[in-house]
Amino acid sequence: GNSVTQMEGPVTLSEEAFLTINCTYTATGYPSLFWYVQYPGEGLQLLLKATKADDKGSNKGFEATYRKETTSFHLEKGSVQVSDSAVYFCALSRSYNTDKLIFGTGTRLQVFP
Amino acid sequence: DVKVTQSSRYLVKRTGEKVFLECVQDMDHENMFWYRQDPGLGLRLIYFSYDVKMKEKGDIPEGYSVSREKKERFSLILESASTNQTSMYLCASSPSPGQGNPDTQYFGPGTRLTVL
Fold this sequence. Notes:
The complex is a heterodimer. By secondary structure, chain A is an all-beta fold. Chain A is 0% helix and 50% strand. Chain A is built from no helices and 12 strands. In chain A, the strands form 3 sheets. In chain A, strands 2, 5, 6, 10, 11 and 12 form a 6-stranded mixed β-sheet that branches. Chain A is globular. By secondary structure, chain B is mainly β. In chain B, strands 2, 4, 5, 6, 9, 10 and 11 form a 7-stranded mixed β-sheet that branches. In chain B, strands 1-3-8-7 form a 4-stranded antiparallel β-sheet, with no helix packed on it. Chain B is globular, with a radius of gyration of 13 Å. Chain B starts with a strand and ends with a strand. At the A-B interface, strand 6 of A face strand 4, strand 5, strand 9 and strand 10 of B.
């Protein structure tokens, strides 16, 4: 079945640093790929998504490109802020039922001023 | 905005108790989900419902049951709570294909359950 692997955290950065959080996947078929974010004390919310190869999802300065050749969907941001501190989850749709998602283990990002 | 609410933010129960976790969504979504979130394990799907009175087991249904009597409400039931069910429980909903993007899930704030 489909699966997703993301880098362990925590990732600790100073404000305005460049961010990369790695995510790779194993899938049959053509799943959609997602990044969800969980701010402290809140539920998850969709950050961005991509539905086919070479698509780039973007939102709030974050970007991720669906790379079929490397089976990756790395999250990047050029200049992080303290308010970006959160847990980030990579996810993909299941091959046989797109209503259900498979989530990675999450990566905690801590940004210091 | 879609709003998903969960009945409690924090809950403490004793081993063997029957526990009800309630979730309500206000966007008329067809699909609803229950996950548990544990450090190092991410989110794992417990149960899924795609319509009233319809349910489907997820990846870790053992020790849990669910109820969906009304479209907006999805309840998770721990018949006899055990210490290994101490966790953060997250409810989510998503639209059916005719309503919007079914692959976008909307989450509640979570219930942190401690079983002593």
